[in-house]
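On clarity, I found the account of how folds are encoded harder to follow than it need be. For illustration, here is how one protein appears when written out as sequence plus structure tokens.
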Amino acid sequence: MSEIKQFKYGRNVTIKVEARDFDLDNITRSMQEAEVATLNRVARDGRVEAIRQITQVFNVRPRALGAKITLSRATHSRRFSKITAKGRRISLIDFGAKRPTIKSGDKGVSAEVMRGRRFVIPGTFIAKPTRGKNIGIPGVYIRQHYLDDPRQRYPIQKQFGPQVSEMLSTQGVGEKVEAFIREKLPQIFDSTFRFFTTKRTSSSVR
């Protein structure tokens, strides 16, 4: 806290406000702590916003995006945080894949990658592998070379939708996330800086 003194010289009264060195140190430390805390909170909120924006454009389950959009936290020695959308494709089953029905007459699984655009993939089916790393996990599959000769029982191949990085860079999704971060950054820093300043001031008074 700054030191305030009142002086009287004849008819004049002067109030002197003097900054002490330890006050400036506290402000500097508070700014550093607020900076790191702000960068990490903005990244965390930005990740949530990225998932929200992607699911508004793409008919994908949010939980399918979770592990593929990661955070790198800021520290006092590394003054930045990162949100990374990995270049990994999402299983087509997570895009509202549905089995063909007798009524629909479809000859394959239908999926809706982008909202409002459902399509059928000929020769595909939904199955749960009985071996391998995806054992018991349903997915959309097609027999390789199915279109060449549908009668042959070729090995099956799993089907995927777009990469998470592609979805983030489609239809201005990434730009909306950046705009969100720019708007939130000063607001979060202001409240965080006040928190650390108040905390240090209270500690000094004790």
